[in-house]
Every structure is written in C-alpha cells, then in structure tokens.
Design a protein that fits this description.
This protein is mainly beta and about 280 residues long. It is about 10% helix and about 35% strand. The protein has helices at about 1-10, 180-185, 190-195, 200, 235-245, and strands at about 30-35, 40, 40-45, 50-60, 65-70, 80-90, 95-100, 110-115, 120, 130-135, 205-215, 225-230, 250-255, 255-260, 260-270, 275-280. Strands 1-4-5-6-7-8-9-10 form an eight-stranded antiparallel beta barrel. It has a four-stranded antiparallel beta sheet with strand order 12-11-15-16, with helices on one face. Helix 3 (about 190-195) runs antiparallel to helix 5. The N and C termini lie far apart (about 45 Å). The relative contact order is 0.16. Mean pLDDT is about 75; it is low at about 5-25 and about 150-175.
Length: about 280
C-alpha cells in the first residue's frame, strides 16, 4: 500500500533536478483533506476497495520531509499506518523527494502550488491531492546554507556495462544503421536506468518512445532537433529527450567527408532492462 500511495503522489517526470538555489519552500505540517475534490476518507487506488482515511505531510526547514497515511484494506480489516521520510528540494513549481535508503534512484517528483494555508499536489495520473496547513503543529529547523533549491545530483553508479545498437545488442549494427560510439553504446543501459522515472520503476511500469533527431558531422546530437514523435506514457517524454541528447554516434562519411544526418530512435523503457534501436530517417 505504501508503494501505491507514493505512486499516487508521483508527478510528470523522474529526471534529476536542475539548480534553483534559494527557492522559497512551503514548509510546515499539512494534513490531507481532499483527493480530486472528495473529502477524506476516499477510495484509493480507485476500484481497489481500500480506503485512505487520513494523512499528513511535513516539510521541514532542514530540507527533510515526513509523509504519513492511514489506510483501511478492503473487507473491513484493521486500519494500517504507513509512511516515508527523506530529503526534499524545490525547483520552480516542482518538489523533489528522495526517500531514505533510495539515493541511487531518481527522486519522487510532483508539481505543487501553495494557496494561503492550502498545499495542492498533482500526480502523473491527473489526481489532485489537497492538504491544509496545521498551524497548531509548527515545524522547527534551520535551512541549509544554500537554501532549499535543488542542486545537480551526483551521477549514479553504473549497473553493468552494456550497449544497444540497431541490432538490439553489442554486436555489429544492422547494415546502414547509425552506430553509437563504443563509449556511448557501452553506457546506454546505465544512462536509461539513471533517467528512469523513480515510481514508474518501483511499480514495474515501462513505455515505448519514438524519437527523431539530427546528428552533426562530428557525431554529436543536435539538441534543438530532438523531437519525441510518439510515446505511450508522458512520464518518459523528458527522459527520452535527455537520453538522446547525450548520445554520440560514429560520424557518417560521404566522399571521404563526415556529414550530418537525420536519425530515429526506438526506445523501450523497461525496469528489467531498457534498450534502444536506431535507424536513418528522412525528412518528414
């Protein structure tokens, strides 16, 4: 149930936070009051028969968070309490949560708005969670020297060397297909793992993405050219763009000279192991 509750609070993307130093934080102790306009208690997940009876979220000035929920399983079983604690930071209108013990995974990300005493959160399924500030429970602590704005995350450790070329493996690419450089190909699976939306990974969810882009004469990807033309889950849109922008290809040579070319990537995001295949593309 705890995983489902966190999945309900997950938002649009699981990418690493950008720097937004000094961003003001809506610190305080908030009590959950509504889900999609319905006052507590509420059925969650929808259709499960389980009921979410109470909940709270505390955002501490020291960049720590505490999330608590009381749920009642279907069938009238006894209510259960669950929760998470960890670190948080803010980038624009987005909160980034890193639960304790999960530093190697992408943070939990969701959009927020503070309206007076009300804190509103939106998740990737379109749910709106509403909390109200409990002024009888003040929070204490000192903010970090740099404020509560997010800092760039340190690179996550590679899981294992791997690659994915046009033939779906580490061998020779299919004839005529774009070929990744050995360094870029060798780190592809690790890169896809580091960009994987955290709660989608925990829930075992994946996606298929089709991306068009232009490769420059030196093998770098033209970042402005990257377009996600089809995707099965919008949680993976930004990770797909970020992945492709960081790739490097063996330059295409025509009449002895390296030339730019258009390419197409088919990305398969899968928590058991993500892969990518590439082919040359033509002008739309």
């Amino acid at each position: 149930m705890r995983r489902l509750l966190l999945a309900g609070l997950a938002a649009l993307a699981g990418c690493a936070p950008a720097m937004h130093s000094g961003t003001a934080a809506p610190t305080g102790h908030y009590r959950w009051t509504h889900l999609n306009g319905q006052a507590r208690p509420a059925e969650f997940p929808a259709g499960s028969g389980a009921r979410l009876e109470d909940g709270s979220i505390e955002l501490q000035p020291g960049a720590r968070f505490s999330l608590r929920f009381t749920t009642r399983p279907p069938g009238g079983a006894a209510a259960r309490e669950s929760g998470e604690d960890g670190d948080f930071c803010i980038g624009g209108d987005t909160l980034y949560f890193t639960p304790d013990g999960r530093d190697s995974r992408p943070p939990v990300v969701f959009r927020f708005a503070r309206e007076g005493r009300v804190l509103r959160l939106w998740d990737s399924q379109g749910n709106e969670w509403r909390y109200t500030l409990d002024e009888t429970r003040p929070v204490a602590g000192r903010a970090p020297a740099g404020g509560l704005g997010c800092r760039p995350r340190a690179p996550r450790p590679r899981e294992q060397p791997d690659c994915a070329t046009a033939d779906g493996g580490c061998g020779a690419a299919a004839a005529g297909a774009p070929v990744l450089t050995p360094e870029s190909g060798g780190s592809l699976r690790a890169a896809m793992r580091s960009l994987y939306p955290g709660l989608a990974y925990d829930a075992g969810l994946g996606a298929q993405a089709e991306v068009r882009f232009r490769v420059l004469a030196d093998g770098r990807v033209d970042g402005e050219s990257v377009r996600v033309v089809d995707i099965t889950s919008t949680q993976f849109t930004m990770p797909s763009r970020q992945l492709v922008r960081g790739l490097r290809f063996v330059p295409r040579v025509v009449d002895g000279q390296p030339v730019p070319f258009l390419a197409h990537a088919s990305l398969r995001w899968d928590p058991r192991g993500s892969t990518a295949t590439f082919r040359h593309a033509t002008e739309p």
